[in-house]
Design brief:
Structural class: alpha+beta
Strand order of the largest sheet: 1-2
Oligomer: single chain
Number of helices: 7
Order of helices and strands: HHEEEEHHEEHHH
Length: 189
Amino acid sequence: MVTRHRQFFFRMEDKKKRIRADTFWTNSEEDNAKYFGAILDGEHPLYCIDQQADVNLDYKSRKRSCWKLLHKGNGKFVDGLRSTETYRLALVWSIHSNYWSTPERKQKMASALPTASTKRGDHHRHRCPNSWCCNPGHFQIGSRTANEVDKHFHYFLKLEGCSTRFMDDFRPLCKKQKVWGFYPPPEEL
């Protein structure tokens, strides 16, 4: 007697496993960089980047703009592309473009990026308060411990009514950790 579960299992064995060719992991770095670059330049048919989705001040009172990936058809947020987080594509793009202001910064990110491509390696640390942000300047490659510490900072830096006070009271710690939160820029900026 074959149970319903076994019937399902036998049917699944007959199907060929789908091989995906459209993922971050199956494409070269250059191809992933071109893909994100087309989105950033507005040339992609489905997606675009809002480069002013959120603007805050960092620990040095500099304006920082978060980038958000949107669907052109409905204007809604898209949380990932090519089976990965958008920020992975953005970081690869930053290495293969002229995004970084100095060759040293570009080389530092290029050498650190492979360690963050594995599940047991380093992590992409968000410096800004938005987990959806894909601005390459808002990321650092660091240890899991540093990433967990960031999460605790961001809890207070995103808390409504607390962010500005937290940033003012703990600016040296935020600077040391290189994180910032919802810190409204003055109107004159």
